[in-house]
Design goal:
Helix content: 55-70%
Strand order of the largest sheet: 1-2
Largest sheet: 2 strands, parallel
Radius of gyration: 24 Å
Strand content: under 5%
Shape: elongated
Low-confidence stretches: 85-91, 98-103
């Protein structure tokens, strides 16, 4: 068997981390112990695998080695009257079950624990990326533009809250599943949106976050095959990701949907996303992610912006409003209404929305005012939008529009 390089070993561990941590949380009842144990197993693998080659079952080796390392460490700590270590040792029973292939229940428990409503959304996102995505603390900190020490503290506090509040490590009961699943899907979509249109920083896109959200979404769809909203979320992300190459110019400038060169769209991702949308339609159990994916599928059907079936998009937004009557959905619907009934009708709808702190509210108003020939008002709206975004690519785009309106 060929020896492995450090980068190959790291790739294997990143792929297997969620499974290993999930099994070891069940064994020891503590996320921190499980995570440290897998890290210890990684150090052992770096020592042995380059010399001996990888084991026949890397996942089983990681779990077994991590468990043994954790027990050794806990015994040393328990001998010093560490009550936490003693409790973890009591919790640990025999050898964990080492099933071949996926372990859906274990990973599902971990996902729902990371996204428990007792944790704040920032902590949910950080834990999900750390434990399910296998990202390092530094990678998560860089993704959300905070110091690594700040992110480390956030993760420690989140794991401490799970331990101290005795948050259960389980999949919610049937009567709790729907609302809890929405929280899990929302966390994954939040990760994707931060990658798709970064809230701050120099670039519009953070490709690594989009990829991680897609991986997590696919995992959820695999583990929850009877939940069409999980499938809808994957379809929505695929259709958004398919446009990445067309969304920015060579110099990094933002290109709006209407001006994108659709030949640059990734047709394989488009085809996969549309196929999932059709699968959702056949189930006839509509939900907000499925409807949003259907809207994006209509865009992907059109060879050009002018050929888009805007009436169908308005109808889909009307359907979406039955699930989510929030002002952001209404704002997006107004953009489609502008293409059907004109910018004047859309502006009336936009002006009625309470979104003064949202930069896209002002950007949409500015575009509608420009189309109505109200250049001075459009300039003020562009300026308001610029003040409310911290993303450099979006600011540059809005400044160009402001200059044109002036």
């Amino acid at each position: 068997m060929e020896p492995q390089s450090a980068s190959e070993i790291e790739r294997v561990f990143r792929a297997e981390q969620a499974r290993a941590v999930a099994v070891l949380v069940r064994v020891f009842g503590d996320i921190g112990i499980a995570e440290d144990a897998v890290a210890d197993a990684f150090v052992a693998a770096l020592e042995r695998w380059p010399r001996d080659g990888p084991p026949p079952s890397p996942a089983g080796w990681i779990i077994t080695t991590a468990r043994r390392r954790a027990i050794d460490r806990l015994r040393r700590e328990a001998s010093r009257s560490d009550r936490h270590a003693q409790a973890a040792l009591l919790h640990a029973g025999g050898e964990p079950e080492l099933e071949e292939g996926p372990v859906p229940d274990e990973r599902l428990r971990l996902i729902f624990t990371c996204c428990h409503p007792a944790l704040g959304r920032a902590a949910q996102v950080a834990l999900t990326l750390r434990l399910l995505g296998g990202l390092t603390t530094g990678e998560i900190a860089r993704a959300f533009l905070v110091p690594e020490a700040t992110m480390a503290q956030r993760l420690v506090r989140a794991k401490g809250k799970i331990r101290d509040a005795k948050i259960p490590y389980r999949v919610p009961a049937a009567d709790e599943l729907a609302p809890r699943l929405q929280s899990v899907l929302a966390v994954v979509y939040l990760v994707f949106n931060e990658g798709y249109a970064a809230s701050s920083g120099p670039g519009l896109v953070r490709a690594e976050l989009c990829a991680e959200a897609l991986r997590l979404g696919r995992l959820l769809a695999e583990l929850l095959p009877d939940e069409p909203e999980a499938l809808g979320l994957v379809a929505l992300m695929l259709l958004g990701e398919s446009r990445r190459a067309a969304r920015t110019r060579a110099a990094g400038g933002l290109v709006p949907l209407a001006e994108q060169d659709r030949r640059l769209w990734d047709r394989a991702l488009v085809a996969e996303g549309r196929s999932l949308v059709r699968a959702c339609l056949r189930r006839n159990q509509p939900g907000p992610y499925q409807i949003q994916a259907a809207i994006q599928a209509v865009h992907s059907d059109a060879p050009s912006a002018s050929a888009t079936d805007w009436r169908q998009i308005v109808a889909l937004y009307d359907h979406l409003l039955a699930f989510d009557s929030g002002p952001v959905v209404a704002l997006n619907r107004a953009v489609a209404v502008a293409e059907v009934d004109g910018p004047g009708a859309a502006l009336e709808l936009v002006n009625a929305l309470d979104l003064a702190g949202y930069y896209l509210f002002h950007a949409v108003r500015a575009d509608l005012l420009r189309r109505l020939g109200r250049e001075a008002d459009a300039a003020k709206a562009y300026a308001a939008a610029i003040e409310r975004t911290e993303n450099a690519a979006e600011r540059d785009f809005l400044r160009r529009r402001l200059s044109a309106a002036g």
